[in-house]
Design brief:
CM_bact (chains A, B), homodimer, CM_dom_sf (chains A, B), isomerase (chains A, B), Chorismate_mutase-related (chains A, B), chorismate mutase activity (chains A, B), Chorismate Mutase Domain, subunit A, mainly alpha
Chain lengths: ~110, ~110
């Protein structure tokens, strides 16, 4: 994460509400809300795919977790995070958070088929 | 989360690799990797904004956390999640996961200014 205090969003928010602190925060929050909606929709699509993967793995007797694949995903996301000025540690925690949920889904799918 | 086993991604992956289970998984994983790159870049942008919010709050003696705002965000994301067939519980866990990181950043910014 960059330690520079000025960035494009800061300048946009200040332009939007020079006098009123409430307006400045509101401008920031509108951008955060837009990004959160995008994140939720991307996550919904991601789980649609992993659900299909879960059914596929259960149908082919493949294990729910795949440590070698996870290691590759983590290395790739850490590298993407660094390039985007996102803390690589956070990107790894985030992927583990999502993968834990996915493995939990896959286990449920396999248990339902046994 | 829908319990239907067939979806667009499943059909795409099967079309891509009818015979070879490895090819089917590879097709799914390419889509997951694309979505993960999008998620990482959205998260990077989100933290750029919350970092600006942190500096703004510290400069105006505003508290790092805002429970009323968080409650509104959770209700909104749960509703977006339901509409997108994402488990609302997961969307709430996800937002808390992100907000915990943000509050941790805000506290660091305020501590640095004290």
């Amino acid at each position: 994460m960059s330690e520079v205090s000025g960035n494009a969003h800061e300048h946009l928010a200040q332009a939007a509400g020079d006098a009123d602190p409430h307006e400045v925060l509101t401008a920031y929050r509108q951008s955060i809300d837009n990004i959160d909606a995008a994140l939720i929709h991307m996550l919904a699509e991601r789980f649609k795919i992993t659900q299909a993967v879960g059914h596929y793995k259960a149908g082919h007797n493949l294990p729910p977790a795949d440590p070698a694949r996870e290691e590759k995903q983590i290395a790739r996301l850490r590298s993407l995070a660094s390039a985007a000025q996102l803390d690589p540690e956070f990107s790894e925690k985030f992927l583990r958070f999502v993968i834990d949920e996915v493995i939990h889904h896959h286990e449920s799918i396999q248990a339902a088929q046994e």
